[in-house]
Design brief:
Strand content of chain B: under 5%
Pfam family, one (chain B): BPD_transp_2
Strand order of the largest sheet of chain A: 7-8-9-4-10-11
Helix content of chain B: over 70%
Bound molecules: adenosine-5'-triphosphate, magnesium ion
Largest sheet of chain B: 2 strands, antiparallel
Structural class of chain B: mainly alpha
Oligomer: heterodimer
InterPro entries (chain B): ABC_transp_permease, LivM-like
Largest interface: A-B, 41 and 25 residues
Main location (chain B): membrane
Radius of gyration of chain A: 18 Å
Shape of chain B: globular
Order of helices and strands of chain B: HHHEEHHEHHHHEHHHH
Subcellular location (chain B): Cell membrane
Number of domains of chain B: 1
Distance between the termini of chain A: 35 Å
Number of strands of chain B: 4
Structural class of chain A: alpha/beta
CATH class of chain B: Mainly Alpha
Radius of gyration of chain B: 19 Å
CATH superfamily of the largest domain in chain A: P-loop containing nucleotide triphosphate hydrolases
Shape of chain A: globular
GO cellular component, one term (chain B): plasma membrane
CATH topology of the largest domain in chain A: Rossmann fold
CATH architecture of the largest domain in chain A: 3-Layer(aba) Sandwich
Chain lengths: 249, 328
């Protein structure tokens, strides 16, 4: 726990009678991809929201690099090093791909209170943005408006923007959602390389991707972690098969 | 025919400069005053456009800043012209007839009020934001009406236009020159602002607050700063407007004026650098051409507005350049 980049401690969140997060403690260690899987409505996005600051838990705490960030808002947690991607793309649809990435660079460089020089002509910002876009394979699309990107390209851009922040930990909510086989494979390769830079907490439905990437898997069902361990542990777990994998078979 | 936006912008400014010069040659001072009016309304709307166009906040109370600028001028000049210093206890305040000082006061006071109003209203959005800003505007309106020391409902007349070093501001073309120069400087600064990191972040905050927060930025603070800058510019325009008319009255605070500023931005093009300027020209031209014929000239304005909203979302500048949105 002490060397974890990110950790939650006994998080609880209820919506009325529904326990969406039930005493969840998970952590993320340097260099790893920790996958969180679970059926629809299990509470995965709710958990991510509490980690990133969008939802206030009823109880429990969140630590980033050993620092208690439970009372930080989204902005402060991002500054402290959380790089997040959304299940439903949250991009600036009217802006170009490059502008979206430059926004990340502005955040990373704390450059927002500059009123004079053009953002798109500031090398320190555009270099960072372009490097990130190159890694996710969007170099050809700098001038494309986000609204005109394909679904898959938007998912790539989500990851690209997170990269511009050079975060201490990536938090990704179903980055593969809606991607074709080809897209998933490309993104899987990309994430595989990213873990060296910062560990990834990966919520994902695509089991091929999870089995290809995860160092550890936690299974969330009805807001509760019912199992946690290596890929083999999870594949061979009766509890999991019964509660989750069994449903799909 | 599609015109490049920069060419279009330059043409509009050139026209605004050429018309008064032509009127000067023809000895038609009224036309000069009319264009000056358009320049000042354009400046007020350029201020509002930062909030409305770049930041996506529909402020229905911007007449508040226009009025504050107007009263800043009125009050300062009133004390100077009556030689009645205002005793504020700690120091007495003599008033001034110097335009630069008046402008500074108008902008600083507007900015401070914008800070307060922004802090209270920016937590809301959509209809609530419209209503809160409207309510603040109305508060100032009724306050001005009941402020008997400065004319109350009747307003305040300033007999001689204020001074600008080296100029005779009573000559229409010279006062026009002052206003036009200010508009050009502000447009230049706003163009820089829009392309700057701050401008990019403001534009992003309009589209997705969550996205901006996730980047470690505070959309609320960004919008607040935009609101303050916007209020200061509209306040400056108010001071010039009062000087143009040599008269201030509570009508400068009216919600109709807030509405007109919004309308002329929509006509010109929301979020476009020159949208407010084009809108102000059209507005003043219509007001002049139709206002003489019928008291109900606003109906025609309404028809134009409707056509633009329905068929030309990018406003007139969108039609001219063939690009519906501000982005390249
Ligand atoms: N703001 C809310 N108010 C009430 N209930 C909510 C709210 N947000 C989520 N829920 C409920 O909490 C449960 C968990 O939702 P959540 O979105 O976290 O699931 P998920 O695991 O991310 O599902 P999916 O795989 O479909 O993305 C669901 O039953 C959902 O309906
Ligand atoms: Mg989800």
């Amino acid at each position: 726990m002490s060397d974890a980049v990110l950790a939650t401690q006994n998080l609880v969140k209820t919506f009325g009678a529904l326990k969406a997060t039930d005493d969840v403690s998970i952590d993320l260690r340097p260099g790893e991809i920790h996958a969180v899987i679970g059926p629809n409505g299990a509470g995965k996005s709710t958990l991510i929201q509490q980690i990133c600051g969008g939802l206030k838990p009823d109880a429990g705490r969140v630590f980033l690099n050993g620092q208690d960030v439970s009372h930080h808002d989204t902005r402060a947690r991002a500054q402290a090093g959380l790089g997040r991607t959304f299940q439903v793309s949250a991009l600036c649809m009217e802006d170009t791909v490059l502008e979206n990435a430059v926004l990340g660079a502005i955040g990373a460089n704390r450059a927002v209170w500059r009123f004079w020089a053009s953002a798109l002509k500031t090398r320190e910002l555009t270099d960072r943005a372009k490097a990130a876009l190159e890694r996710v394979g969007l170099s050809e699309h700098h001038q494309t408006r986000c609204g005109n990107l394909s679904h898959g390209e938007r998912r790539q851009l989500e990851v690209g923007i997170a990269l511009t922040l050079s975060p201490r930990a990536f938090i990704m909510d179903e980055p593969m959602a809606g991607l074709g086989a080809g897209g998933s494979k490309k993104l899987t390769e990309l994430l595989d390389g990213m873990r060296a830079q910062a560990p990834i907490l990966l919520v994902e439905h695509d089991m091929d991707a999870v089995f290809a990437l995860a160092d550890r898997i936690s299974v969330l069902v009805y807001g509760k972690i019912i199992a946690s361990g290596s890929i083999d542990d999870i594949k061979n777990s009766d509890v999991v098969r019964e509660a989750y994998l069994g449903q799909e078979a | 025919m599609k015109v490049d936006e920069r060419v279009c912008n330059a043409l509009v400014l050139f026209g605004m400069l050429a018309l008064p010069l032509w009127a000067l040659a023809q000895d038609e001072p009224f036309t000069i005053t009319l264009v000056t009016r358009a320049v000042i309304l354009a400046l007020a709307a350029v201020g509002l456009n930062i909030v409305l166009g770049f930041g996506g906040m529909v402020s229905f109370g911007h007449a508040m800043f226009f009025g504050i600028g107007g009263y800043a001028m009125g009050i300062l000049a009133y004390h100077a012209q009556t030689y009645m210093p205002l005793d504020l206890g700690l120091f007495t305040f003599e008033g001034t007839k110097s335009m630069p000082v008046i402008w500074l006061v108008a902008m600083v006071v507007s900015a401070m009020i914008a800070l307060l109003v922004g802090l209270l209203s920016l937590r809301t959005s959509g209809v609530y934001f419209i209503m809160i800003t409207l309510a603040f505007g109305q508060m100032f309106f009724y306050f001005a009406i009941s402020w008997a020391a400065y004319g109350g409902e009747d307003g305040l007349s300033i007999y001689v236009r204020n001074d600008f070093p080296g100029l005779n501001t009573l000559v229409p073309i010279q006062f026009f020159g002052v206003c036009f120069a200010i508009l050009c400087v502000v447009l230049f600064l706003v163009a820089r602002l829009r392309a700057s990191p701050f401008g990019l972040a403001l534009n992003a905050a309009r589209q997705s607050g969550v996205r901006v927060e996730t980047m470690g930025l505070d959309p609320m603070r960004i919008k607040l700063v935009a609101f303050i800058l916007s209020g200061a510019i509209t306040g400056l325009a108010g001071a010039l407007f009062a000087d143009l008319n040599r008269f201030v009255s509570p009508s400068m605070f009216s919600w109709q004026l807030s509405g007109e500023l919004i309308v002329l931005i929509i006509i010109g093009g929301v979020g476009r650098l020159m949208g407010p300027v084009i809108g102000a020209c059209v507005f003043v031209a219509l007001e002049h051409a139709l206002g003489g014929l019928t008291d109900f000239w606003h109906i025609y304005l309404g028809v134009i507005l409707l056509c633009i909203v329905l068929f030309a979302r990018g406003g007139l500048i969108g039609l001219l350049t063939g690009k519906e949105s501000a982005h390249v």
